[in-house]
Write a structure and sequence with these properties.
Length: about 280
């Protein structure tokens, strides 16, 4: 299968690329910095303009969008361009070329919680329109917070583990908000299932998570116990964001799509602690 991927060089995307490559798919990966990556017989890394020019010859059968700009150190313009503007250009071109299925990574956060969530909602709505107008399949993957070994340093779990290992104070909100923590291996396997599933639905919002939601406080206290840390856990030292949500994936809907988590959150956190060294933090 010929697959176009955007956001294929990040923590999640790079692992999905490996799965697709192992499945003997032909892949074009659109990235801002193609010279940083080595193309292979099955994977070509190109910038946006080159991608748009070559898609007519490539004729993608599927487009997977995993671009995620969370807004750390960037403004709203950059968030909108990354999460909406660039994918919209690729969606338009692939729809014109008769792409069969589009899969995009969305978020379980409320639409207006922040610009990241809003930009993801905008692209999902655009996908719904394209599905109706062009007859393509558009799957919006409502993905929970994923984590795993060798995560980027600015992610919540990795940041907390680093401070715990160094016995530094950990500043936190009250920690009462509940979050669905999805192990990276489950995330990749679930996406692979959606790539090859035989669903005929034109548009769908598909929850992807572990299906369980401990409180943030539970997770942090468990990590502190695993690391035998002496760090003060300063719950309440950071104000809770307005309208802070609780999120959890619907297992019943996931089952209908043939996806199921195999990592519970405690096993996943033990995996992090057992494979994280201070030099990585």
């Amino acid at each position: 299968m010929r697959v176009l991927v955007s956001g294929g060089t990040g923590y999640l995307g790079s692992r999905v690329i490996k799965k697709l490559e192992a499945g003997n798919n032909q892949i074009i990966c659109m990235t801002r910095s193609p010279l940083l990556y080595t193309s292979s017989q099955r994977v070509s890394y190109v910038d946006l303009q080159t991608c748009l020019k070559t898609l007519g010859e490539f004729l993608p059968e599927m487009y997977i969008n995993m671009v995620c700009c969370y807004g750390r150190g960037t403004g709203n313009e950059e968030i909108l361009e990354a999460n909406f503007g660039v994918p919209a250009k690729l969606l338009q071109r692939t729809a014109e070329l008769g792409v069969g299925r589009v899969i995009t990574i969305g978020t379980s956060l409320p639409d207006r919680f922040n610009m990241y969530a809003y930009s993801k909602k905008l692209f999902s709505d655009l996908g719904s329109w394209y599905a109706e107008q062009y007859g393509i399949q558009f799957f919006n993957v409502v993905m929970e917070q994923f984590y795993g070994k060798n995560m980027p340093e600015d992610r919540f779990v990795q940041t907390v583990v680093g401070r715990l290992r160094r016995n530094e104070p950990v500043h936190l909100t009250a920690g009462t908000q509940k979050r669905d923590f999805l192990h990276i291996e489950d995330a990749v396997d679930m996406l692979e299932t959606l790539v090859y599933c035989e669903s005929q639905e034109i548009y769908a919002n598909i929850p992807v998570g572990s299906g369980e939601a401990p409180s943030v406080r539970e997770v942090v206290e468990y990590l502190a116990m695993l690391t035998h840390s002496k760090s003060p856990l300063l719950f309440g030292s950071i104000p809770m964001r307005p309208n802070e949500p609780n999120t959890v994936a619907d297992r019943e809907i996931m089952e209908k799509w043939g996806i199921r988590a195999h990592w519970d959150w405690k096993r996943g956190m033990r995996d992090i602690i057992g494979n994280t060294v201070e030099g990585e933090l």
